[in-house]
Write a structure and sequence with these properties.
The longest helix has 18 residues. Helix content is 26%, strand content 19%. The N and C termini lie far apart (43 Å). The protein is an alpha/beta fold. It has 3 helices and 9 strands, in the order E-E-H-E-E-E-E-H-E-H-E-E. The protein has a single domain, classed as Peptidoglycan recognition protein-like (Lysozyme-like, 3-Layer(aba) Sandwich).
C-alpha cells in the first residue's frame, strides 16, 4: 500500500447493507480482501450502528473507496444505507450521525479542510452511496455545530 501524500477531501460512504444489520469493520474488510482481492479494507473509518467509530485502513495510506480520488481523500463508511428490501435509504441512527459529525470535524481540523471539501461517493460514481445528498449532510452538520457548546475547563461538548 502507498502512503497518501496529501489530503484535500473526505468522502462519505455507506456499507449498502439492510437497516439494522449489525456489521463491523472486520466484515467489510473480509468482503474487500476476500471478495475484491484488495490488500485491506477500502475505508479508513467505519461507523457502527451504535455510533462506535472503528478504524479501517491506516489513515496515512491511500484508500480504496472512490476511484480516481483515493490518493488524496479519507473514506468514512457508515453501516447501513438500504431498507429491509435493499432499496436506497438513509438509515443513519442518531448515534451514527453524531459520530460522523465528530469524525468529520476532527478530520477537517487535522487536514485544514472546509465543509466544501466533504463529499459523498455519489458525486463521483454512478451509485446511490451513501444514500443521502451532500447538501443534506452539510445542512445537518451546520445545525449540529450551531448547537454544540464546548466546556472551557474539561473540553467536553454539550448540546445547547
Amino acid at each position: 500500500m502507498k502512503t497518501r501524500t496529501k489530503t484535500d477531501m473526505i468522502i462519505l460512504h455507506c456499507s449498502a447493507t439492510p437497516e439494522g444489520r449489525d456489521i463491523k469493520a472486520k466484515d467489510i474488510k473480509h468482503w474487500h480482501v476476500e471478495g475484491n482481492h484488495w490488500e485491506d479494507i477500502g475505508y479508513h473509518y467505519v461507523i457502527d450502528l451504535d455510533g462506535t467509530i472503528e478504524s479501517g485502513r491506516d489513515e496515512r495510506m491511500v484508500g480504496a473507496h472512490c476511484t480516481n480520488y483515493n490518493s488524496h481523500s479519507v473514506g468514512i463508511c457508515y453501516v447501513g444505507g438500504c431498507d429491509k428490501n435493499m432499496n436506497v435509504k438513509d438509515t443513519r441512527t442518531k448515534e451514527q450521525k453524531i459520530s460522523m459529525f465528530k469524525l468529520v470535524q476532527k478530520l477537517m481540523n487535522r487536514y485544514g479542510l472546509t465543509l466544501k471539501q466533504v463529499h459523498c461517493h455519489n458525486e463521483y460514481a454512478q451509485k446511490a452511496c451513501p444514500s443521502f445528498p451532500i447538501d443534506r449532510f452539510r445542512r445537518e452538520y451546520q445545525e449540529w455545530t450551531n448547537h454544540m457548546i464546548t466546556c472551557p475547563y474539561c473540553g467536553k461538548e454539550f448540546s445547547a
